[in-house]
Amino acid sequence: xxxxxxxxxxxxPSYSRIRSALYAIQSHPDLELxxxxxxxxLLPKYGSAIDFILEDGFIPDAQIYHMIEGETLxxxxxxxxxxxxxxxSELNKLQPDAVVTIADRYETLATAIAASYLNIPVVHIQxxxxxxxxxxxxxxxxxxxSDIHFVSTNKAYERVISMGENPDSVYVTGCPxxxxxxxxxxxxxxxFNPFEKYGGVGNTFNTSEDYLxxxxxxxxxxxxxxxxxxxxxxxxxxxLNMPTFWFWPNPDAGSAGISKEIRVFREHxxxxxxxxxxxxxxxxxxxxxxxxxxIIGNSxxxxxxxxxxxxxxxNLGTRQFGRExxxxxxDSSHDSADIISAVKRQxxxxxxxxxxxxxxxxxxxxxxxxxxxxxxxxxKTLLL
Length: 384
Prior knowledge:
Blueprint: E1 3-9, H1 12-16, H2 19-27, E2 31-38, H3 49-55, E3 62-64, H4 73-94, E4 98-102, H5 106-117, E5 122-125, H6 135-145, E6 148-151, H7 154-162, E7 170-172, H8 176-182, H9 194-198, E8 212-215, H10 226-240, E9 244-247, H11 255-268, E10 274-277, H12 282-290, E11 294-297, H13 305-309, E12 313-316, E13 329-332, H14 336-347, H15 363-373
Parallel strand pairs: 1-2, 1-4, 2-3, 4-5, 5-6, 6-7, 8-9, 8-11, 9-10, 11-12, 12-13
C-alpha cells in the first residue's frame, strides 16, 4: 500500500522550497501525494502562488483560507489560530501517513501543531537553521514538534541533534529550491520578457543592461521600523540610478508599512527606473536573478539559491542574522549610504563562484526516497 504524504504549502516561497520534492513524491511508486494550499499562497495581493502550482500540474486536495487582513502582530497570531482549526479538519479528512511542513513561517507552525495533535507524523523541511526575528523561535518549535527532519546543511544537522532529536530521524538532503537553480541555463537564462509575462508597475527597460533586484520583507521583531527601512532602501536604489526589479513583500507584520511606502514612491516618482512586480514562477524568478548584477534585501533566496548561482547579494539588517552563507553575500545596515556602498562593492567583485552550501540540486529525489522507506514514529526517543 502506498504511503500518503500530505504537503502543506502556505506561502509563495514555500512552493519553491518543495516543488522538486512534489514531483518526486508524485512519481514515486510507493508514495501518494496529497496537497493542501493555504494562507497567502491563495491570495492575489501576494501573487497567487496557487496559479503556478496549478500550471505545474498539481491538483490540490484542499484549499484553506485563514488569513486575516492587517499585516500586524495580532493578525498574524489570529491567522495562526484559524490555520490550526482549518488544517485540523482537512488533515482529519485526508488521514495521511505523514504531513510535510516547510521552513519557519507561522502557518508552518500551525501545520505542525495540527498534525501533532492528530498523531500524524510531522516531516519538517529546513529545520536547524539560525536567523533573526520570530522565525528563529518558530523554526525550532517546529523541530520539536516534528518526527522526521530534512535539513539543508551539515551545521543544521548538528543543531537539530543538539536539540535532542534522534539522529536516525535527521537527514541532510540539501534544500529543494537548489534543485530549481540547478536547472537554470547560466549561458542564456533570460528566455522570456518579464514585463510582458508578469506586468507590474513602473517603467520598463532593456534587460540586456545591468539591473538590480530588490526583495525586502518586514522584520517581525522590528515591524514598527518597516516604513523607515523601506524608505532607506528606496533612497539607495534611486541614487544608484540602475534599472531595478522590486518584488512585493510577504504578509508578515510590517508588510503594510512597506507596501505603503512603495505606493507613495510610485505616485511621486513616475520616471523612476524601478519596476515593481508582485510574483513570478520559481524558474522565471531565478532566471531573472542569475542575469542580474546584484540582489538586495533580506530574503533567504539571496543566501540559498544565489549562493548556488553565484549572484552577488547585499543582505540588509537582522532578518537573516546567523544564517550560513557563501562568499556571494555581504551585509549592510538599513542606512541608505551603507546600502549604496555595499552594492557598489558587490558590483565590482570578480571573485564570486558557485557554492554548494545548501545542496547539489538533488534534494527532491532524496526526500521522496527517504519518505518511502523511513520509519514513521510519533514517539520521541529520549536521548540520555
